[in-house]
Amino acid sequence: MHKVLFAACFSAVAAMAAGAAQANDELIKLSQNPKDWVIPAGNYASNRYSSLKQITADNVNKLQVAWTFSTGVLRGHEGGPLIIGNMMYVHTPFPNKVYALDLNDENKIVWKYEPKQDPNVIPVMCCDTVNRGVAYGDGKIFLHQADTTLVALDAKTGKVAWSVANGDSTKGATGTSAPLVIKDKVLIGISGGEFGVQCHMTAYDIKTGKQVWRAFSEGPDDQILFDPEKTTVLGKPVGKDSSLKTWQGDQWKVGGGCTWGWTSYDPELNLVYYGSGNPSTWNPKQRPGDNKWSMTIFARNPDTGVAKWAYQMTPHDEWDYDGVNEMILSDQSINGQNRKLLTHFDRNGLAYTVDRASGELLVAEKYDPKVNWTSGVDMDKNSPTYGRPKVVDQFSTDKQGEDHNNKGICPAALGTKDQQPAAYSPDTQLFYVPTNHVCMDYEPFKVSYTAGQPYVGATLSMYPPPGDTHMGNFIAWDNKTGKIVWSNKEQFSVWSGALATAGGVVFYGTLEGYLKAVDAKTGKELYKFKTPSGIIGNVTTYEHGGRQYIAVLSGVGGWAGIGLAAGLTDPTAGLGAVGGYASLNNYTALGGALTVFALPQ
Q: Catalytic residue numbers?
């Protein structure tokens, strides 16, 4: 973690020493150097903040392209590169190539890894052939391939040290997420909620690839790694079989709850945080109950996998509001009390501020005023529905029943924000959030489960909210008050990850392909540059040879860009995204490239 950031997030140099003793020593040491970018989200706190400040609000308008690199792959380029010393590691969507580039030698390709995968995995991937990045630790680069293989590559040579299958792609499991190295383990989730996969978070031994623990999102206590007495929800023990009681029969075995988003870690508390996705099927009539623990924030011990606490944000999900978005850790004063906070911008349109040590819910507010499926969360601790969202009957796909087209639900299934990660600046104490400003029509229908076949059961269409023509906003958010501080409209959803810097500048990319820089305090646009393709990658910064660089992958795709990426034209294809983003074809085209910016020398 960057030096300034570590002090902000974990309070003291003493905490750094403790963290170094607890966590992977090499990774902790490397991550304290802001010149590098050694963890997919920038640091364990997942706040995508850099203490580099050569580029400032005063000079960012002078940025120029320093160099570019073609990945040789089309489709959607999510995630971003790692920078470790003089080496940069760049990944691609399927076929999941990894390039090692020498920054000291004109960005020469030192090695390239290209796995041989069965192309039949492509149609099993829900929302494009994306991959969100590689991880580093113990001299290895870790890649989660589309076919679920977790592979460890020698960072110097690219040779395979070990590999292990994390799931079965013939039954619908796929790999799209970035691993996270914690201590002597590599943690990785799984995708496949649209195919009825019983999803999990798994820890593998960093030396051998041997499975250490696996925690499923639903099932009996020994599978979800819950202690009925010690694992809590909103301060109370979860009790025995907390998941099984909320499913009908054995439905939990095809229950979804996938874990394809981002993972965070607090070395001081020794807790790892991540979210689970939608229950299967998308037709809520077929799975009565709260469907625990889909749509849930988990806090787990990374040594054992046992959950300390859990909180389900959208019980009995009726809209596909996956809870997998990043968990941003910060230490802030709220209501006059210093707290270790976790802030999460959920697909369901609500931003949650939680005490990450105890799981206490502190704030839950809409971060797009157009959100209408709920009137808000019950915050009365004495209420039997404490912590639950209050569902508006008009927009309940369950109450209206099967084969009824529920119109005007906001947000759409892709959420007020999907996986594209927000950033947090300890300087402003604001969160910078790329959002979708999109509503939908949602018609559930009966569907049967067949292993390896889609298990969706809903037809969708997407469009901007009534009265609006834009489909995205880039906002600054105060997590203590639950208020938007400023908001910039974007024509399309902002599907790129944000970056906040000590220079007072925040960066993000647009689906048309612009890298944009805005003032962290006001949101004023300071700079933009059109890259070769739409940006769904995450903005990264590093320093090399005394210069600060800004790097971003462009390559349109992902759920929002699936029509372009896969050549789809039916408006309801891509789970409704093709029609909603049809005009994106007028602004960009396919192509994978890394574009790197710097100030003139």
A: 320
Return the closest-CA partner of residue 322 out of 418, 185, 187, 453. Answer: 418
What crossing angle do the helices spanning 3-10 and 13-22 adopt, rounded to 10°? 90
Q: What does pTM read for this prediction?
A: 0.95
For residue 306, give both structure tokens: 């046992």
3-state secondary structure of 563: helix
Q: What is the H or E stretch that residue 112 is in?
A: strand 108-113
Which residues is 265 bridged to in the sheet?
Answer: 272
- One-letter amino acid at 381 equals K
| Alpha carbons 2 and 8: distance in angstroms, whole number | 10
CA distance 569 to 116: 30
Sign of the C-alpha dihedral computed for residues 415, 416, 422 and 426 taken in this order: negative
How far apart are the C-alpha atoms of 23 and 36, rounded to whole Å?
18
pLDDT tens per residue across span 132-171: 999 999 999 999 999 999 999 999 999 999 999 999 999 9
CB contact at 8 A, 83 and 547: no
Residue 498's alpha-carbon distances to 57, 85, 138, 532, 538, in angstroms, are: 16, 23, 28, 19, 6
**518 half-sphere exposure, CB direction, 13 A CA radius:** 23
Least confident of 117-131, 405-419, 515-529: 117-131
DSSP of 303-359: TT--EEEEEESSTT-SS-----S-EEEEEEEETTEEEEEEEEE-TTSEEEEEETTT-
